[in-house]
């Protein structure tokens, strides 16, 4: 058990380093690196953060590693995810989790926001692994639609998934469209990507290789998309729309996101890291009107009815 944990920890840290370096190359300067430890000694992590940058208004690539006795709230949470936990013997269980999570908010509204996370979790009973699963995914949130960007992003993901199974990308692309649904607004958060959870039907090494390829797909696609748009001209109205859409982004995270909920029910969690995905600025306007036929309206139509970007 310990040998594999060391292996998966090194694997997740390598993804964090690879992605951080690719973003630093776009920003032209280093991210702040801040290590932290849980007060109870049951976890640690590292936040790689950019704030008020030239290209990125705010962003973070965060590593987290925890091993916790199951609290009742945490046991309820993972039971709702289909894990079998005897609520009368919680002291016999522990949950180990290691992952990298990122959200990047560029300054320019022509450049999209992106989210990604890749995780490994183990449920142990009296020191023996009772269950394990891999999880992760990524989604792209443009403010103005560039179809070439969307196609390149999805193609990179499909190419990362296909070596594991030709069925993986279409299945988890559909799950991404379903998961990142802002139900109270009747639209998706962005143009999708992939989202998988509770996956353990393949060999552990194969699933680690999948996560690595997805990290490499990020490096191959997203920095180039930002370089393409970081110097595009934009108006005050377009900046205003970016802030409106960022408000929608926050609504999803607070109301629906599993990772946020997991963090908030985890005792002594790092709240600053959990809420890192929130942008520096957002807007909520009463009855904000979108002009029919506008570029904003064109995006919203895609958000309401997800599209298949690659075949």
Helical content band? 40-55%
Mind summarizing the main beta sheet? 7 strands, antiparallel
Q: Mean of residue pLDDT?
A: 93
| CATH topology description | oxygen-dependent coproporphyrinogen oxidase
Strand arrangement across the biggest beta sheet: 1-2-3-4-5-6-9
Structural domain tally: 1
- Strand content is 25-35%
**pLDDT < 50 stretches:** none
State the end-to-end CA separation.
Answer: 39 Å
Task: Walk me through this protein's architecture.
With 311 residues, the protein is α+β, with helices and mostly antiparallel strands. The protein has a single domain, classed as Coproporphyrinogen III oxidase, aerobic (oxygen-dependent coproporphyrinogen oxidase). It contains nine helices and nine strands. It has helices at residues 2-27, 72-80, 147-161, 168-179, 204-229, 236-255, 258-265, 271-274, 295-304, and strands spanning 32-37, 43-51, 56-69, 93-106, 113-125, 128-141, 181-182, 187-188, 193-199. The strands form two sheets. The chain has a seven-stranded antiparallel beta sheet. Strand 4 and strand 5 form a beta hairpin. The N and C termini lie far apart (39 Å). The mean pLDDT is 93. Homodimer. Belongs to the aerobic coproporphyrinogen-III oxidase family. GO terms for molecular function: coproporphyrinogen oxidase activity. Its EC number is 1.3.3.3. It is an enzyme of class 1 (oxidoreductase).
């Amino acid at each position: 058990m310990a040998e594999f944990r060391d292996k998966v920890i090194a694997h997740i840290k390598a993804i964090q380093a690879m992605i951080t370096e690719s973003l630093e190359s776009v920003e032209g300067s280093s991210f702040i690196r801040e290590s932290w430890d849980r007060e109870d000694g049951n976890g640690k992590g590292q936040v790689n953060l950019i704030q008020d940058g030239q290209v990125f208004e705010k962003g973070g690539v965060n590593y987290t590693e925890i091993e916790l006795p199951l609290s009742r709230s945490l046991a309820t949470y993972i039971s709702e995810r289909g894990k079998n936990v005897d609520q009368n013997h919680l002291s016999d269980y522990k949950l180990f989790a290691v992952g990298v999570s990122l959200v990047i908010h560029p300054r320019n509204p022509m450049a999209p926001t992106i989210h990604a996370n890749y995780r490994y979790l183990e449920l142990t009973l009296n020191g023996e692994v009772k269950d394990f699963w891999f999880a992760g995914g990524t989604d792209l949130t443009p403010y103005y639609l560039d179809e070439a960007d969307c196609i390149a992003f999805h193609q990179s993901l499909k190419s990362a998934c296909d070596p594991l199974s030709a069925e993986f990308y279409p299945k988890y692309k559909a799950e991404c469209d379903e998961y990142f649904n802002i139900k109270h607004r009747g639209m998706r958060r962005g143009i999708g990507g992939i989202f998988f959870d509770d996956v353990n039907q393949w060999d552990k090494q194969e699933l680690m290789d999948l996560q690595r390829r997805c990290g490499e797909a990020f490096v191959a696609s997203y920095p180039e998309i930002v370089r393409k748009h970081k110097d595009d001209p934009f108006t005050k109205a377009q900046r205003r729309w970016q802030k409106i859409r960022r408000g929608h982004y926050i609504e999803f995270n607070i109301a629906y996101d599993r990772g946020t909920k997991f963090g908030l029910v985890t005792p002594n969690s790092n709240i600053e890291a959990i809420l890192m995905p929130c942008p520096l600025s957002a807007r909520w306007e009463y009855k904000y009107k979108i002009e029919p036929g506008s570029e904003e309206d064109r995006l919203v139509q895609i958000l309401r009815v997800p599209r298949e970007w690659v075949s």
